[in-house]
Write a structure and sequence with these properties.
five-stranded parallel β-sheet; 2 domains; globular; Aspartate Aminotransferase, domain 1; single chain; four-stranded antiparallel β-sheet; Rossmann fold
Length: about 250
């Protein structure tokens, strides 16, 4: 576990970590506690700041940045978008090239004509490099999976997709959260072995495998708990805060 360096930055997922999931009411006490950690991090070298690596689109993540008082840039769309609140700076990953853009256009057209125009399926707004489909109950993800698999074929192999119980997400094969974390490291000058990370979903493995100290909330999927150095006994935001305190304790031992 780790290289014995102080943790300078903790990178957290949003859905399933800071909050239970889409549509859930925020626990403001969690965000107040994260704000306090980020405030203390400015003057205490033992306390790492907290930033975000999420599959959510930039406008949504920007709101979470403000709730967290995050002093560092964030990764959106699972590595596809880099965003800094300072200067409102947004950059799309260079792997989102013209061929990948064309593939996304094809997926979007097919998703609209085959699903969104026919069934209660919402295309999540605000995304640049990905496409997310959200079926509205009583329609389920399982019911639209076969059509989603057909839609994927329009990407000529440039996209893959994964799904949860509430949505289906199409992502470029050359972009993931690990790519996004390395990008964050380049932009901030903080090495990945000076970072800790916490997640809950299988897609989080891509960035958790790169950090010095990997954490999992209690509600995390098995692929995440298998690689975690620390699995919190608490779920969601309480688990994130528990991991933050674990990282602080590790720093103080150095």
């Amino acid at each position: 576990m780790g290289a014995g360096k102080p943790i300078r930055l903790i990178v957290a997922d949003i859905d399933g970590c800071l909050i239970p999931g889409q549509g859930e009411t925020f626990d403001l006490e969690i965000f107040q506690a994260v704000q306090e950690v980020n405030r203390q991090a400015q003057s205490d070298s033992h306390i790492p700041a907290i930033t975000l690596c999420s599959g959510r689109p930039q406008p949504y993540v920007e709101a979470i940045i403000q709730l967290c008082a995050t002093p560092y840039p964030v990764v959106c769309e699972s590595g596809g978008v880099f965003y800094s609140l300072k200067g409102r700076y947004l950059e799309v990953h260079p792997n989102f090239d013209s061929a990948t853009q064309n593939a996304l256009r094809a997926i979007t057209i097919a998703a609209k004509t085959q699903l969104a125009d026919r069934l209660p399926v919402v295309i999540e707004p605000g995304k640049i490099t990905q496409l997310t489909l959200i079926p509205i109950a009583p329609l389920t993800v399982e019911e639209i999976l076969p059509t989603a698999q057909q839609i994927l074929q329009t990407s000529n192999g440039l996209y893959s997709f994964d799904h949860t119980s509430i949505c289906i997400n199409f992502s470029p094969r050359t972009i993931n959260k690990g790519v996004g974390l390395q990008w964050l490291a380049e932009k901030t000058g903080i090495r990945t072995d000076e970072m800790a990370g916490i997640g809950d979903a299988p897609a989080d493995r891509d960035f958790l495998e790169l950090v010095q100290l990997a954490g999992a909330v209690q509600n995390a999927a098995e692929p995440v708990t298998q690689i975690a150095h620390y699995v919190s006994p608490y779920a969601y935001g309480r688990g994130v805060l528990d991991f933050v305190h674990y990282c602080i304790a590790q720093n103080k031992r150095l």
